[in-house]
Description:
The structure is a homodimer.
Chain A: H1 2-15, H2 21-30, H3 43-54, E1 60-65, H4 69-77, E2 83-89, E3 93-95, H5 100-103, E4 114-116, H6 117-121, E5 128-132, E6 134-139, E7 144-148, E8 160-164, E9 167-170, E10 175-176, H7 184-187, E11 189-190, H8 194-211, H9 218-224, E12 226-230, H10 234-254, E13 263-268, H11 279-292, E14 294-298, E15 300-305, E16 309-314, E17 320-324, E18 327-330, E19 334-335, H12 338-346, E20 355-357, E21 369-371, E22 376-378, H13 387-394, E23 402-403, H14 408-417, H15 419-427, H16 433-440, E24 445-446, H17 448-455, H18 469-484, H19 486-491, E25 517-522, E26 525-530, E27 534-538, H20 539-551, H21 556-572
Parallel strand pairs in A: 1-2, 1-9, 2-5, 9-21, 11-18, 12-13, 12-18, 13-14, 20-22
Antiparallel strand pairs in A: 3-4, 6-7, 7-8, 10-19, 15-16, 16-17, 23-24, 25-26, 26-27
Helix pairs in contact in A: 4-18, 8-9, 14-15, 16-17
Pfam family, one (chains A, B): Pyr_redox_2
Family (chains A, B): Belongs to the NADH dehydrogenase family.
EC number (chains A, B): 1.6.5.9
Amino acid sequence: MSGYRFYERASRAYYSNPRLYQLLVVCSVSGGGLLAISDQNSPIRSAFADAGYNADIKKKKVVVLGTGWAGTSFLKNLKDPSYDVKIVSPRNYFAFTPLLPSVTNGTVESRSIVEPIRSIVRKKKFDVYFKEAECYKIDTENRKVYCRSTQQNNLGGVEEFTVDYDYLVIAMGARSNTFNTPGVVEHAHFLKEVEDAQRIRRTVIDCFERASLPSVSEEEKKRILHFVVVGGGPTGVEFAAELHDFVNEDLAKLYPKLKEHVRITLLEAGDHILNMFDKRITVFAEEKFARDGIDVKVGSMVTKVAEKEICTKERSTGQTVSIPYGMVVWSTGIGTRPVVMDFMKQIGQTNRRVLATDEWLRVEGCDNIYALGDCATINQRKVMEDISAIFSKADKNNTGHLKVDDFKEVIKDICERYPQVEIHLKKKQLKNFLQLLKNSDANDELNIEKFKLALSEVDTQMKNLPATAQVAAQQGTYLADCFNRMELCEKYPEGPLRFRGTGRHRFRPFRYKHLGQFAPLGGEQTAAQLPGDWVSIGHSSQWLWYSVYASKQVSWRTRYLVVSDWGRRFVFGRDSSRI
Amino acid sequence: MSGYRFYERASRAYYSNPRLYQLLVVCSVSGGGLLAISDQNSPIRSAFADAGYNADIKKKKVVVLGTGWAGTSFLKNLKDPSYDVKIVSPRNYFAFTPLLPSVTNGTVESRSIVEPIRSIVRKKKFDVYFKEAECYKIDTENRKVYCRSTQQNNLGGVEEFTVDYDYLVIAMGARSNTFNTPGVVEHAHFLKEVEDAQRIRRTVIDCFERASLPSVSEEEKKRILHFVVVGGGPTGVEFAAELHDFVNEDLAKLYPKLKEHVRITLLEAGDHILNMFDKRITVFAEEKFARDGIDVKVGSMVTKVAEKEICTKERSTGQTVSIPYGMVVWSTGIGTRPVVMDFMKQIGQTNRRVLATDEWLRVEGCDNIYALGDCATINQRKVMEDISAIFSKADKNNTGHLKVDDFKEVIKDICERYPQVEIHLKKKQLKNFLQLLKNSDANDELNIEKFKLALSEVDTQMKNLPATAQVAAQQGTYLADCFNRMELCEKYPEGPLRFRGTGRHRFRPFRYKHLGQFAPLGGEQTAAQLPGDWVSIGHSSQWLWYSVYASKQVSWRTRYLVVSDWGRRFVFGRDSSRI
């Protein structure tokens, strides 16, 4: 598309200067792009648009709530033009959130990681409508969502409206979790949205400028230049590392007298930072931070954030400590948004913390509502719940006794339906399911009790998926794929056997494929944990990080901008203007 | 310096990878830059710094208020290390304001036109201190300025302090002038600061998003998408043109159904837009805007801005008209800041609208206070005020009668002291001053009355300098030059004769050199009025505009960013994410 736009602009410029037209044609032909010099109302484009309009009446209404990783990946991959798609989100853009810590200090500009959702969906061959609003209520009975505009300016009163749906895709993400710690909302900065990152950037500069004023005492300087990061997860660690680089590479030169006063503290309630990573990475990170002078305090639980100090309870001593600070960044995990909470109450999911879906990302209890990304978790079905049904399915003749080989027919379905089975096999280093059954008994025949025994440990392998961009993006792609083949799979179901019912499931359940995870540690060093527990730490991983993050950008525009930002930082450093 | 930083970064990267060190040496030697690979504590740098510190006691204290065009250009050109310089400004950066209209719609990013003042003055060989604060009072008696921090966050109470000065340079700029029109401050956007431009950009997107909501009526859509620009000066005209381009080149594609509703109106109280330009430019601009569909209303005086409508009085009909709008941008001229007003009262300049300085930029009535840029005007001395003194100076023997040739000795001084003389000569197409005297009388002898008659029309040529970046920058350079040669010129004054006193003025008075002015009109067309009334309109001027604006950037970083922003816009268009 960028190529098309380039040609279009070029053509406009060249048309106004006819003498150069010849050159344009030569360039275009040699580049194989002559067809691209057509204006927007070309017959090809109009044909698609017309088809879209005429078919409006029969189209199924799909409403997508949210333009984050899950929603955008769903929209990007949705190809079936037989849907009428409406998007509702308070943000009219998609943000590449893994680069937010880089935005907090200007390694990357905020504009470089966002892409308007309209320009993402504009490339569709069918019409997609976007409404900048937040959904505040989901009415499952009438299949409606209630929305209102989030704008706060002089454009007039609050706009409210409803949107009807046939299918609802909830991809609203989560909010920062304060664990009800007093003062967090008032005094701490979160790091979830682009605006948060911009605000943090301004506040860091504010702290340095304020500490430069002649009326500020030495003690006060130390307080103002004490940056506290709460939460030792990947975001908190990356932010602390980036801030350290910013201070040492750029600010130290502009504020030479303040460098000695700067202190960065990372508070973690657990025993180690980066505890979801391999032990080697944790150790490396803790050692590097110690060398860099970043103060990592583990076993430190924040109890209160006041205007100028943060109170923690130290697990080792049981004492309450009060630490003066200049800025606090709160990055301890995510919580459920109020509207999702309300929705959960409405559909009877009252005793859960997060919205539960089945393995096909359908909200439990709602056939036509899907939830993906950080706002939901998959409630993986236990093998033990269905164990009798599975046994009966294999036991076609209802004998109560089965040879191990009799299971052959249903093995594939079992493995597909219950992903924990495969994880268990891998862990036990078993070649296949039959071995698991055989291992349990030398005897080749199983009854229901022995079958239960063989599978008894399988369910312990069940784990919730992490709340990462990677999971959300894969879920979006998966769901779009299901929507694309909805009609086909209705006729020819491709999923596993329904053990409790008849026939097969329409689709294969969602299966997450972990591609690895990065933890940038500053100083052009990154820790990478790749599939197969392959760990790489150092400068080479930083280059891997650069290439992966560049390749994962949503558009050529953001890719170009992000890469040129990196280059710009390398040559000119980061900007410290307070804007 | 950017070269130095590049090497420094490169050296850091290469040191950690010793195998590449050889390559670095080769590159550096071939580039002649080996010396650049030294760290910040190199002996050369330290020597300067030490010299600075030791000499602190005798140093004259210079306080600069403001980091706009005037202040920054003064600081950039100040080279004499015998001053102790302190800068006080609420903005810790310099902004390239002529590109603000481009920032309002993302042709150029806001970050690309700002440069931290600390990084500008860091290149000095002496210490310059910056304080992010606003000056709220000038105490001329005790030679002190009272300052306070402008930060509004949780960093603690209001910081107040005073700064002593020996020389004070007031370069605080001006504020937008509302002419006390009710509702302007509450409902209109100004376009003076970077934050204003960012806010306008967000509001334009807000208008489009709001108009896209299903609950908004057709009439309301028209109102929301009506953009009103008040003031037909270069800023207002450029903003209207840029907005038109943004809507037509970028937003029309993303909001195809809204394009027909968009309306841009330019209100001008005078008879024509761009009335400070050549008539040809005005006509071209008005015709181009008419073709583009930008509604130019001349003779339209805004009387009130309400929440959703703007009221104007039409000069032609005398009627009051009320126009519904979505966004108003107010760009009608500048007014004096309250702190400058207070200062004027204090020094007795009570019956003036703007702070007056003499031709050496010294505030009238204050020997050690200078004012430059938009906050002051030069109160050009009239020839007629000094006419007797001039005559006496030439009439060495006190005869009361002088031959024209007797003036030869003082001609240079007269022309230097009273710039209006040269303008008058040029206008009358006279070769030199003697001709002016000769013209007045065939007789070769003059008495005081005839001399007065000859010069009687000269003072009508006096004009205030326009409030432009060009004037401010030239004044800053001029004043820095004076400061650099203060001691030298004290001994060997280089200015014109003091007609009313004895001896000579220390410095030549400030003389503005007009280098031309641009008025970008959108669609890659710019009107340029160059010295000698040379007018150029069209695409070629646009390229001239690009090159001038690129070359005038304050640093290589901003130059690179601005140019790459232009390129990015050409290829990818402007971003419409609401951040």
